[in-house]
Structures are given as C-alpha cells and as structure tokens.
Design goal:
Oligomer: heterodimer
Mean pLDDT of chain A: 93
Number of strands of chain B: 12
Structural class of chain A: mainly beta
Number of strands of chain A: 11
Largest interface: A-B, 24 and 29 residues
Helix content of chain A: under 10%
Amino acid sequence: EAGVVQSPRYKIIEKKQPVAFWCNPISGHNTLYWYLQNLGQGPELLIRYENEEAVDDSQLPKDRFSAERLKGVDSTLKIQPAELGDSAVYLCASSLGGGRTDTQYFGPGTRLTVL
Amino acid sequence: AQKITQTQPGMFVQEKEAVTLDCTYDTSDPSYGLFWYKQPSSGEMIFLIYQGSYDQQNATEGRYSLNFQKARKSANLVISASQLGDSAMYFCAMRGTYKYIFGTGTRLKVLA
C-alpha cells in the first residue's frame, strides 16, 4: 500500500514569492491534515479536512495561507506571499478518521526555505 | 484545553538496554487516544504505538510498550533492547474529541 505522498521535498524561494505544496493521502483515508513543524519542535496543526470539508482551520494564517482539497482526495497548501518566518517543514498526514482511535500516517514533508 | 508535556529534550541509552521516554498530558475530554511517533533524521513521522484512555491493558508493539497511568496522566514510552536505528526524535501525541496535539519531542541517541 502506498503511503502519503508529498511534493516537492524541498523548496527554496525568496520572500514575497508564492509557493504551493501538494499532498496525496493514503487511498481510502477521508481525513487529511496539514502541519507546520519548526526545527526542534513538534508538529502544529494548520488545517484538518474531513473529505472536502475543512473542519478545523483555526490555526491557519488566512491572510497568507490557503488550502484546498477538491474531490476529497489530494490537497494543496499555498502560501502567498511567503515570509522569512515561514521557513519550516510542512507535513501532510492522513487517517481513516474515527475520533480518539484516529491514527495518522505522515508523508515525508516539504522543507521550505525562504530567503 | 489539551496539553502534552515531554520534559526530556534529550536522552542517551546504551545499545541493548531499555529506555523510558516520558510524556504527561492534560485534557478535559472523557475519552482520548495517546500516540507515540518516531521521527528519524530523514524527517518522516512514523507511528509506533497507540493507547486508548479506556483500554485496561498497556499497549505493546514489538519492542515498544506504553506505560499508561491514567490517574497520573502519564503515557511513557518504553523501548526495550535499544538498537542504533532507534536514534531519532520521539513525539507523544493526544487525540481528544476534536483536537490532535503533539509534544515538543525527545531526542534519543543510542550509543554503541
């Protein structure tokens, strides 16, 4: 079974430029998460989707970040414009859903460097 | 509010010995799940073990076991017979009714 796929693995951009990350979850997983992970820290949730619906986007900086999950499968996270402080690893995870038993499976992440 | 605390930023263990990584949590949810993930230097988060708040027995998965003490709100990970490949960051996480949160992690180094 294929795991969570993310691309690109690495991205270097200059500040004020736009950037987009793509995630394809494990087949059959209805729940998709985007996390931000700063160096030496745990992942912090940006947005959670249940199928096509964003059910928790309270931590997403909506002035510059946007996300979509059309058709309830793959998802795109966008930053426009990027700032120096956005340099981090962006992790995508998926799960079957199901509340407290909800085990997430992560992709390899995208390491973003903003110059 | 939910909170996960990992108080050990770094740990060392000799190869073949056991090690315990600490995790305490706080939640007002009556039902929750506790998870441990491993993150090697390659960056991918790997699921290790799960414990439900109503589970009577401590979870075990191969060399991993979870020492769950509900009254003390702790969910420590025990790795037996440490291997060099166990060197990584380890994150404790909790899934409540609506939220999934992670601790700040413990960096484990296994010494040959």
